Amino acid sequence: MFQKRYLLVALAIAGAAAALQLTQGTASETPTLPPAYAPATREKDGLIAAAGLVEAVAENTQLGSPTSGTVLKVHVKVWDQVKAGDPIITLDDRDLTAQLQVQLASVTAAEATAERAEDAAQRWTGLKDTGAVSAGDLLSYQVAAKEARARVALAKAQVGQTKVMLDRLVVRSPIDATVLQVNVRVGEFVAAGLKAPAVLGDISRLQIRCDLDEQLAPRMAAGLAAKGYLKGESGRVGSEARAIALKFVRIEPYVIPKVSLTGGSAERVDTRVLQVIYQFDRPADRPIFVGQQMDVYIDTTSNAPRK
After folding, report:
1. Is 42 left (phi over 0), alpha (psi -120 to 50) or beta?
2. What is the pLDDT of residue 202?
């Protein structure tokens, strides 16, 4: 009985000692100091916020290959300036080149056959009044000459078709642009309609594609002024000096599911957004690259009803 009492007393003393030590440790901690300056704030009245992605001025062109094949030559590299019609990549053309040689030989053979048939038809036509050839035989010679001419035309058409297919193996730039990305190397296989072998864009000026939450869409109107900030700059002290003036271009009239801005085309969140396009000139004091994210603030005060 006495042992239990002593045990309880010992436990109480140990608990009190532990509590006293913990209290002293907490009291000795250095208190957290307030920030040296107040954090930057932004007046939100009349502003709607949107996340944006920087694009080339006429949108990025995902260059496609009309046919599948192995890359024989890459004509450009990133940052190259290209004109419309300049070659970007050339696919392996050995099969079609060999096929073209066979078809050219077929044209020569068809022309020789046509010459013989034409000569025979002309000679027998000149003798039709002498009775040396019947009307049926003469018709056969004339039909044979016509058929030979058709075979020549067919052979030449096949040659033209193969030349077009050879030309399609050279993937060319459809626009005057800068090469933003090259996704293939010599020897790699390009599948038609899948991964773009190159990305092109006119980056003399840039545009930003803003994703505006559908709940804020009724507040959006054409021509509203806006400012953009590179990711993370909108909360800094003196951020107004870092603002980029944006020029309204258009509102995309189709509300789409929001795509997470991570580069993955299949990543989506349960939100629908209205896309708004703005343009801006490149700032001279800092670089901005296609694909960067920006925080955009659109001023709706000019759209507010007059009192």
Report:
1. beta
2. 87
Architecture per CATH, 60-91+171-201? Beta Barrel (2.40)
Span 190-218, pLDDT tens digits: 888 778 899 998 888 889 999 888 888 88
Return the SS3 of 4: helix
Q: CB-based contacts of 66: which residues, under 8 Å, 6+ apart?
A: 168, 171, 192
Crossing angle of the two packed helices 94-126 and 135-168, in degrees rounded to 10: 160
Question: The CATH number of 93-168 is which of 1.10.8, 1.10.3470, 2.60.40, 1.10.287?
Answer: 1.10.287
* The token pair that represents 107 in the structure block: 């044209």
For residue 177, give the 3-state DSSP assignment. strand
What are the domain boundaries of the chain?
39-57+203-307, 60-91+171-201, 93-168
User: What pLDDT, on a 0 to 100 scale, did the predictor assign at position 143?
Assistant: 83
Radius of gyration of the chain (CA): 38
Q: Where are the beta strands (DSSP E) in the chain?
A: 47-56, 61-63, 69-74, 81-82, 87-91, 170-172, 177-182, 189-190, 198-201, 206-213, 226-230, 244-251, 256-259, 268-280, 293-299
User: Could you tell me the pTM of the whole model?
Assistant: 0.62
Cβ atoms of residues 200 and 175 within 8 Å = yes
> CA–CA separation, 210 vs 113, rounded Å?
67
CATH code linked to domain 39-57+203-307: 2.40.30.170
Mean pLDDT for 251-279 is: 74
